[in-house]
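Q: For a teaching handout, I want to show students what a protein-ligand complex looks like in token form. Below are the inputs, and the small molecule is 6R9. Please produce the holo structure.
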Amino acid sequence: MHENRRFAPPAALVAAANVTADAYAAASADRIAFWEEQARRLDWARPWTTALEWEPPFARWFTGGLLNVAVNAVDRHVDAGHGDQVAIHWEGEPGDTRTITYARLKDEVCKAANALAELGVRAGDRVMIYLPMIPEAVFAMLACARLGAPHSVVFGGFSAEALRNRIEDAQARLLITADGGFRRGRPSGLKAAADEAAAGTGIERVLVVRRTGEAVPFAEDRDVWWHDVVDRQPAAHVPEYFDAEQPLFILYTSGTTAKPKGILHTSGGYLTQAAYTHHAVFDLKPDTDVYWCAADVGWVTGHSYIVYGPLANRATQVMYEGTPDTPHRGRFWEIVQKYRVSILYTAPTTIRTFMKWGDDLPAGFDLSSLRLLGSVGEPINPEAWIWYRDHIGGGRTPVVDTWWQTETGAIMISPLPGVTDCKPGSAQVALPGIAADVVDGGGVPVPDGGGGYLVLTEPWPAMLRGIWGDPGRYADTYWSRFAEQGYYFAGDGAKKDQDGDLWLLGRVDDVMNVSGHRISTTEVESALVSHPHVAEAAVVGATDPTTGQGIVAFVILRGGAPDGGAAPAAELRDHVAREIGPIAKPRQILVVPELPKTRSGKIMRRLLRDVAENRSLGDVTTLQDSSVMDLISARLPAAS
Ligand code: 6R9
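A: Here is the structure, written as tokens, with 6R9 included.
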């Protein structure tokens, strides 16, 4: 799709925007003073003495400052008279609901903090959280923050093995879990996996939330029910104030080796940037907006844009437990209509799934409350961007494409909705106070029109403070590649267009080299999905004896497209050749019913490469649905 349109922000949004173009000028005049000003959005029990201490690659922000993260997310709003404002409209998958005001949230967090203290949790202790998308996940995270005990949330879809590895790495003593949650119309158990993971580790107590009511194994000497110990606690809790660099959480993310990295975030700088970016990028008006981030709290997006950023900004938000197709494929749009959601934040993979399901579904609901849409997690192809704006945003809403990582803690590159003319497919520019560039292999910035590696050239408040227990790996993974320049290496390829806007091209390990030409998997995928018959596509570079790598594409056709046979493949190959150039023409196109995705929705190209190179499959345990690979393999004979 050749999409050259630019979308100017709606006049009403410009007129009332939280952040205007002045912010860029202010931040570039004095970046540190700019972040100090943003830090003043928070309540500090004692102000900091030094804004930034930077001994590359180790940063300390707002040193000398004391704050309590939970007080900033909850208590201060109640103290300011907003106790009756709804913090969370929670929607369970079966249709049960809970409405949690800020006053109620404060009580729940205080009770949970008292319970954790009774169970022996002290500041600095690590607490594992393995919960479905229920309000107790938020209460538990904030209770930990209140006590200065870093939490480590493990996504409920992860296996017992994955949880055990993380428990051991973090050396946690307490695990908070549930009997289960509802997914795809049924209770889905968690407790048995939690038990398997905890056995033989340092976990001393397991706090169990009752959600599904299913019978679960219960170790009387180790396990306690949330409703038994939390509900009887007093709703008052005197907060302690912690250093700005007090660890807030460890979140595990996969790297290039098998062992996941425990990304460490601390308090003052992280909360400053999470709150500022949420205010700036989503233009949140706490008195009128209804915000919905459709991520899971088990991912960094849930940490920064369900829990810390929105609550620090006194948002009213929607939290949804289940899957988008339960009990029907219009569930998201029904929720938007019901709560009059005005700001929606989701992932391209979800948007493309909705495209696959057809335009009629969203058209059947009143989505007129939406005024701003966001995207995160992977590059959004222009086709999906336009569909999102037109079919969900009614052709009115800006779409902010937000680039960031678990490691960056908060959004780094994104349009500002009241300032930027949006370009479909581009995350555009670094936010005020953030310094990003695209450099070549030697660390030299590329000119406009050039491509290379995305780097961050100055420290930022929400940056990771390290990899838990492994400072060497931290320095090596992120800071060794451009050590001379002192740049943070993000691991993403990017290009700068003629306006200097940034286009993220996917992980650099996903960049293919075909006959010496560099081609991004994302670019080819984008070309494929711009064809009217294609719903979704994943592209890998498979070893090829002549060209180095050959392009292999896995595509899901849209409903109604001619299926099977050689005709669609030939047409799609020609289409890609037309869109990008003959060099990008896939060697093979495989029409498949599904693509293998991780539970966070990222396509597992490694597995597709295994298929494309006729290897036996590698580890499939992090797949959302491991049977997908069987479906794909079954299509193989019809391949080339
Ligand atoms: C927030 C999150 C980080 C990786 C990152 C990049 C990809 C995220 C993106 C994007 C293009 C965007 N990514 N947002 N690529 N455009 N707007 O997703 O964190 O799970 O750690 O993933 O995701 O490749 O390096 P995380």
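A: Two things your students might notice: Residues 515-634 form a domain with the GMP Synthetase; Chain A, domain 3 fold (CATH 3.30.300.30). Residues 273 and 524 are 34 Å apart (CA to CA).
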